[in-house]
Design a protein that fits this description.
2 copies of one chain form a homodimer. Chain A is an alpha/beta fold. Helices cover 32% and strands 19% of the residues of chain A.
Chain lengths: 285, 285
């Protein structure tokens, strides 16, 4: 039996499924304190029977390199009570005989979309999510990118849209991509939540500018064959077409992969990308 | 016997060496038309004896994916006569029994610096070169990043330094990183070549701003453990320290890898990184 855990900043999902990433049974509940959250997840999974492999898709920053001392631990996070908590420690105690595989939530979603979703069959895929924050996971040459810690796509800095002097809302950087284009940035800038803005609101032109520049950075650094843009703030009608149009304009013909009409697409797995990616992590795909 | 070819936009290097990347004999000559350049390189190598493995480090854009129709061909390049020329075709004709391994010149340099240079022992390394253009090669998890085409680091867009309204010199994008911080950009902006500017010239503060923002993008997307900055325009005294100081300022404590005092360093292999990387490509390291 294969199990997955998607540990998000606001909700946690646990599931039993197949090595192909199919969900057989899942439970979604609010993320609270670390011991209670992992305890609840472990108890639910234990009731499902003996588990051999568990994939964990976690919010960050989190240590994902098994060679390093901080492996499996939550690093400095503004989320109260979580800094320093060892996910792997808690799960190894609860499931001493299971193989645990940990990655970031966005890498798990990138893996799921690349294997069984909107980029099925491609080996070079980026997955971006725009919600409370902005994050990105990348599959390059068929392998997830980790690096020295892990990417923090939301904290990229991109050029300002001409005339835009909004200071941004990132507590660290002000006007990084997350500070300018996340859900809280939209709410602070326009005085309304993203889902309350109609599809013709000027906010979306601004979103297209900033997200297209973020994707241009992906093209310049990892050259994805396709970019999937998901998350709550991506769901307004027409946003993906606007981003692609802006991307073609700013790339000025220089990046051949971006000319694919399906270069910037919505996720195919919707809300299930993270947990299904956790199942794929568990199965070692 | 292992051979390497570094095909640059202005000079070509051919060499015989060891699988460990040591140079035994090399020849440097100007890059002219494709048939003459590859013909000269092949003739010199053939005189050295029978060759089993040849590594090729080429300027771009060039097709490096053996699965694709454009493998081994020079893609649309402003360099006259080179667009569409098949490097691999020419070399396979000259050396029908040799194994050919092709990658970008910057990936070859990244590989050499990561194996036997300034980042020896690290598996997550970025190599940036600042000269006539700006390019970057990336080793991630011990493997070179290729992507759908290959990265084009110089065409990244970064925020403008406050008050800077120089339009940039990139014929495609104007003010991309290469348009703002390459050698020709410095010459156009300041009216003097980079090597004529003293180490206290304000040009270097501007260079530090733009290169630090480029490195921040690398941190956000691939999280290197070390970044090597080379090329002719990187050789002024103190530039690496300036870049690192600006990087610490703009990352605002958010990127732990960047806090390493050796995070931004000069190449250890100097002008030899590309050709020694070609030898390592040939040896399959």
């Amino acid at each position: 039996m294969i199990a997955g855990i998607e540990l998000g900043g606001t909700k946690t999902v646990v599931a039993i499924g197949t090595a192909a990433g199919e969900l057989l049974e899942e439970w979604r509940f609010p993320t609270t304190q670390p011991a209670a959250t992992l305890g609840g997840a472990s108890a639910w999974l234990r009731e499902r029977g003996p588990l051999e492999c568990i994939g964990i898709a976690a919010f960050g920053p989190v240590g994902i390199d098994p060679q390093r001392e901080h492996y499996g631990k939550m690093l400095a996070t503004p989320k109260p009570g979580w800094t320093g908590f060892s996910l792997i420690g808690a799960l190894a105690t609860a499931f001493p005989n299971a193989t645990l595989t940990l990655d970031t939530d966005v890498n798990a979603a990138a893996l799921a979309e690349a294997r069984i979703g909107a980029a099925a069959g491609l080996d070079d895929v980026a997955y971006i999510t725009i919600g409370t924050g902005i994050g990105g996971g990348i599959l390059s040459g068929g392998r997830l990118i980790h690096g020295a810690l892990h990417p923090e796509f939301g904290h990229l800095k991109v050029p300002r849209q001409p005339g835009d002097d909004f200071p941004g809302v990132c507590p660290f950087h002000g006007d990084c991509l997350e500070g300018l284009a996340s859900g809280p940035a939209i709410a602070a800038r326009w005085g309304q939540a993203a889902h309350e803005l109609g599809p013709d609101h000027p906010a979306w032109d601004s979103q297209a500018w900033y997200l297209a520049h973020g994707i241009l950075a992906l093209l310049a650094i990892v050259s994805p064959a396709r970019v999937i843009v998901g998350g709550g703030v991506s769901q307004v009608a027409g946003l993906h077409a606007r981003i692609r149009s802006k991307l073609l304009e700013i790339s000025a013909g220089y990046f051949p992969p971006a000319m694919d009409p399906d270069y910037v697409v919505a996720p195919a797995l919707g809300q299930e990308a993270g947990i299904r990616g956790a199942l794929l992590l568990a199965s070692g795909v």
